[in-house]
Amino acid sequence: MAETFKTLEVVCPICSVMKNINIPEAIFSQKKFGSVKIQVPINAVCPEHQFIVFVDTKGKIRGYEKIDIQMLTVSPQAETEVTGKINLRNLIKTFGVYGILNLIHAKIFNYPTYILKDDIFEYNEDILNRIGDNILPEGYKGHKTIYLLEETAIDKIKVKDKDAFIMDTHQHIFQTPWITKLKFEEEIIKRALEIIDEEEQLKLLQQDIAFLAREVSYAISILQDVDGIYEDELLDKISKALSIKKISAYHMNLIKLFISRNISKKIASKIKNRVGEFLSVL
């Protein structure tokens, strides 16, 4: 049976260029995931910008989100040399920039990931999990978190993990179990994409994530000896001990999330929010 499409009138949220794009009708037949995030790459609507379109199950656009990451332009010869290899550039071509940000977030913070694959998808689960392990520091490798689904009927997907990240190989994202902005992932991807050497890109990602793990390790050394500590106090201790600029509240949330999902929810619960605690007694 031939695949049918729905036409969406999409407007670039940056320059306001408008263009119709066709999206498979099957995307909107699913009900269990609610809205779908559709990645719009450069040249799909306008020649300079890429962005996310939020579409509900009726095919109505509910909003947009900018993607402020650009890939370096490489020579045709360099492009030919990396074709078919497993590298950051080719993974972005498959999953989109926003898809890669989410996949990295899921891997760092130990969220189960389900990818709906089509018949021409060239990677298997072992390869994808090995790539994910390559960016993680020692001690956090070896956990299988990425699973491929053969099911093409989106409404028939059965995923037991309520906190799973779910997308397909056509850059459609069905479920993100977090509400946090992916600022950390954006920063490390931007830094990596400034380098043309593919191996060095993955090494740089690993270094940035390893530094987060180092901050986590020091935080745990403090938390093990206390019944509780306020976020701002812990921020000061980590910053002074590691001789780094003061950690932001956003970064503190990353440390807390890392501890909760990779090490111990009980230890993470020792980190107290001064404002939240004050509001709870009002």
Key structural traits:
alpha/beta, 282 residues, seven-stranded mixed beta sheet, two-stranded antiparallel ribbon, 10 helices
Largest sheet, in brief, is: 7 strands, mixed
- Global outline: globular
- Please provide the count of β strands: 11
**Tally of contiguous helical segments:** 10
The termini sit apart by 61 Å
CA radius of gyration is 20 Å
Which percent band covers the strand fraction? 15-25%
- Class by SSE composition: alpha/beta
Average pLDDT figure: 86
Extract low-pLDDT stretches. 72-84
Give me the side-by-side strand order of the main sheet: 5-4-3-9-8-6-7
The residue fraction in helices comes out at 40-55%
Topology pattern, helix = H, strand = E:
EEHEEEHHEHEEEHHEHHHEH
3D structure, described in words:
The protein is of the alpha/beta class and 282 residues long. The chain is built from ten helices and eleven strands. Among the domains are: 1-68, no CATH class; 211-280, no CATH class. Helix 3 runs antiparallel to helix 5 (183-193) and helix 5 packs antiparallel against helix 6.
Note the topology.
Blueprint lengths: L4 E7 L6 E7 L1 H4 L6 E5 L9 E6 L5 E7 L8 H7 L5 H21 L4 E4 L8 H10 L11 E4 L15 E4 L3 E4 L7 H11 L4 H26 L5 E2 H12 L6 H14 L2 H4 L2 E2 L1 H7 L2
Parallel strand pairs: 6-7, 6-8, 10-11
Antiparallel strand pairs: 1-2, 3-4, 3-9, 4-5, 8-9
Helix pairs in contact: 3-5, 5-6, 6-7, 6-8
